[in-house]
Specification:
The protein is an alpha+beta fold. It is built from 3 helices and 6 strands, in the order H-H-E-E-H-E-E-E-E. The protein has a single domain, classed as Thiol Ester Dehydrase, Chain A.
């Protein structure tokens, strides 16, 4: 049985995630990818990309283990970074990606988890770091995104 503290924390987590989704609004590309928001707190968002064959990289030969296409990984990183930034934006502020750099370290296999953390939020730009891990828990990619913070956006 869950303790009262655990139940309160779970409720706080749900409220934070619902608040994030309301602030983000419509997200057709994220939904097209099949990505899901897992958790949110100020400056930190976790997302999941369930395994789908259409996310697989090209050029597989018989016997090769399928892995996530780099473009799908970059899209997940961008979406997670954007959402993490939303958690620290003020009312009336918006955001847009101005740079995304990603380093592929190992094949991402199975369900992929993204953890995005705001490293610096300035007046006009923000830096967000993202770590992508495959089902095996190994870090398969790290990304850094720069966003412009838009006033009245």
């Amino acid at each position: 049985m869950a303790s009262t503290e655990q139940m309160a924390q779970n409720n706080d987590d749900r409220v934070a995630l619902e608040t994030l989704l309301q602030r983000i609004g419509s997200r057709p590309f994220v939904e097209h990818l099949g990505a899901e928001f897992v958790s949110a707190e100020p400056g930190l968002v976790r997302m999941r990309l369930p395994w789908r064959a259409e996310h697989c990289r090209s050029g597989l030969r018989p016997g090769d283990a399928p892995s996530l296409h780099g473009g799908a990984a970059a899209s997940l990183a961008d979406a997670a970074a954007s959402a993490a930034l939303v958690t620290v934006l003020r009312e009336g502020e918006g955001r847009t990606t101005i740079d995304l750099m990603i380093h592929y370290l190992a094949p991402l296999r199975g369900e992929v988890m993204a953890e995005a953390r705001v490293r610096r939020r300035g007046g006009r730009t923000a830096i967000i770091d993202v770590e992508l891990c495959g089902e095996d828990g190994e870090t398969g990619a790290i990304a850094r995104a720069t966003f412009a913070i838009l006033k009245n956006g």
